[in-house]
Amino acid sequence: MTAPEPIPVERLLVERRLAPLKLEVVAGAKGLGKSCITNPRIQKPDLALAGYLEAVKPGRLQILGESEYNFLATFSEQEASLRLERLMGLDIPCVVSTKGTRPPETVLAAADAASVPLLVSPVQTSEVIETISDFLEDVLAPRVQLHGVLVDVFSLGTLIVGDPGIGKSECALELVYRGHRLVADDTVVIRRVHHRGLQGSPHSLLENYLELRGVGIIDVRKHFGMTATSPSVSVSLVIQLTKLTPEARRMEQKWREQMMERPSAWTSTQEILGIEIPKYTMVVAPGRDLAIMVETAVRKCLLAQRGIEDERGFLESVNLIAEGGNDDS
Hints:
34% of the residues lie in helices and 27% in strands.
């Protein structure tokens, strides 16, 4: 797992996703390139304004909204300014004031002195929090790079892994022919986003490319059109490709026995960034159509998400036969 890079505050001003907030720097401009946001969760400094300064977490962006200003209005103007000046003196990367509220000049001077960027947005507090949180959660999410191929199959992110040369890219190409979408080949970047689970995307320099042994590199978007690729997808299934070996045969037999005792829609799971993902292991052998098998596995996974599991129905039929309840016997 690789740690994400801290975000300089000045990036908030040029990020296209934050443009609707119309952020304006009103103080602390010297800190724009130095102060960095390291925590994706933003904070409303209610407790700090009440005097409990220890509640402020370093590295978190602070929001001054209507409730904070209403609270400060219960004090004299001098006392309110003093409490905001104390906030500026803490180890915080920046402050965003919403609804176009501009803090008093003494507070702006304190932000300048501490080089804490103070930004103002004319947008409502809830919208500012939602927009900035989405951006920070995405950019500061824990991430890992895995070797494999990621394909959007029936809108289910399917990560295909296995030894080099086993046929991952060829399987992905066949899936593209069937109308599914390539997300990443060779290097898959997976991020754990707070409210969206695992998000998979290609390396920024390898987007749309697929490597085929014996053919070379192809740009899938140019060969098959813009609908043949996707920039990202939620990773929900892992397909492990393996060669037909005695060990693979023993593993298949173990899964059959396990299924009879504890029926499950998938044979195992794989942990990625702390999240368990359903996993199927498929043996690669002559005559097996991997693309059809992958499609079938995805269908099983989608049905299981709706509470429909083939294995349970099969076992119920087997038990009925064993109890002599089968009229066809």
